[in-house]
């Protein structure tokens, strides 16, 4: 199943246990599939990107990484540098791990490793925003860097977002930005908003707030924007109610394989890509449909988003 496998481990992710988990993963794979695994431990920023980029030339059939969203994003970006790509999977060691939730991976690293014993192959969409990739979510608005990566114990329903909003209200502007959105069909929409999110699946910030039908390889992005220049308590109310519960007066909801977002604003509109500061507008977003082949556990317990 896995063939020659490269395991990339971030030793500082997951309470510093990335390396031990990598050994455990190697043992599981070698015992289950009698394959050959190589572990590489990252030292800094570009390692995961460089190693996954070179993996195909080095004869690896699969690349698995262990880490948080940063490590997963870098590994994915490296894989996408080649036309022919090794298959991919990861063991989530971060805090929010939206993609892992959408894929039905366990949030418990030991269990996620065990589940590699019985997998099937599926495909995964990757998002592109201008000249970079995203795996989870793009936010447009004055959202602080730490928003999508907040360390919250409360991962249900409001989860990370409630924590974020409580903790960072001061960072949100009550100014609404004038945004112009064009989708793949050329439909044009104007909106004033101070919170616009675009996700590839229905899980954002650790909670399921988008379209419950959203699937990680359906070729679509899901956009939700809160209309007007709302204070945080309104935004909070909308999130508590669930973004997918259509409320056309307060919410703009769209789905498309492409979005173009522009503004006439004189000041820069901040953006956030998978928890890190993103590019300035104009934004060109598109789905790289089924860009990767991935391993997912065969017996996933819940309906997937
Ligand atoms: N050996 C290392 N020592 C220190 N930092 C490292 C090392 N290897 C990788 N890094 C850094 O770790 C960061 C990525 O962390 P990652 O996102 O995987 O975990 P995390 O921050 O715990 O996860 P999350 O943000 O989802 O909570 C990168 O910025 C990378 O430079």
Automatic annotation (TrEMBL):
Record's protein name: DAGKc domain-containing protein
PROSITE patterns named in the record: DAGK
Cofactor(s) of this protein: Mg(2+)
Domain of life according to the entry: Bacteria
InterPro entries in alphabetical order: ATP-NAD_kinase_N, Diacylglycerol/lipid_kinase, Diacylglycerol_kinase_cat_dom, Lipid_Phosphate_FormReg, NAD/diacylglycerol_kinase_sf, YegS/DAGK_C
Domain DAGKc: 1-133
Coiled-coil residues: none
Family: Belongs to the diacylglycerol/lipid kinase family.
GO terms, biological process: phospholipid biosynthetic process
Keywords: ATP-binding, Kinase, Lipid biosynthesis, Lipid metabolism, Magnesium, Metal-binding, Nucleotide-binding, Phospholipid biosynthesis, Phospholipid metabolism, Transferase
Biological source species: Suicoccus acidiformans
Alphabetized Pfam families for the sequence: DAGK_cat, YegS_C
């Amino acid at each position: 199943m896995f063939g020659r496998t490269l395991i990339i481990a971030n030793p500082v992710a997951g309470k510093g246990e990335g390396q031990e988990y990598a050994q455990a993963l190697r043992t599981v794979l070698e015992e289950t599939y009698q394959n050959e695994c190589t572990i590489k431990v990252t030292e800094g920023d570009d390692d995961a990107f460089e190693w996954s980029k070179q993996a195909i030339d080095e004869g690896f059939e699969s690349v698995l990484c262990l880490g948080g969203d940063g490590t997963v994003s870098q590994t994915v970006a490296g894989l996408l540098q080649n036309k022919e790509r090794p298959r991919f999977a990861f063991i989530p060691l971060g805090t929010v791990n939206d993609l892992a939730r959408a894929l039905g991976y366990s949030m418990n690293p030991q269990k996620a490793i065990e589940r590699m014993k019985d997998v099937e192959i599926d495909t995964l969409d990757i998002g592109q925003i201008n000249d970079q990739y995203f795996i989870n979510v793009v936010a447009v608005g004055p959202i602080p860097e730490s928003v999508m990566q907040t360390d919250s114990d409360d991962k249900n329903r409001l989860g990370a977002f409630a924590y974020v909003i409580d903790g960072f209200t001061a960072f949100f502007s009550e100014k609404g930005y004038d945004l112009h959105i064009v989708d793949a069909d050329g439909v044009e929409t104007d909106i004033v908003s101070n919170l616009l999110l675009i996700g590839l699946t229905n899980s954002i910030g650790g909670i399921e707030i988008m379209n419950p039908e959203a699937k990680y390889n359906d070729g679509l992005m899901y956009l939700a924007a809160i209309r007007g220049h709302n204070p945080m308590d309104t935004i909070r109310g909308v999130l508590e109610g669930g973004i997918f519960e259509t409320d056309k007066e307060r919410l703009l909801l769209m789905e498309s394989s492409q979005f173009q977002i522009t503004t006439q604003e004189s000041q820069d509109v901040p953006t956030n890509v998978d928890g890190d500061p993103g590019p300035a507008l104009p934004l060109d977003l598109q789905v790289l449909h089924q860009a990767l082949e991935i391993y997912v556990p065969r017996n996933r317990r819940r309906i997937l988003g």
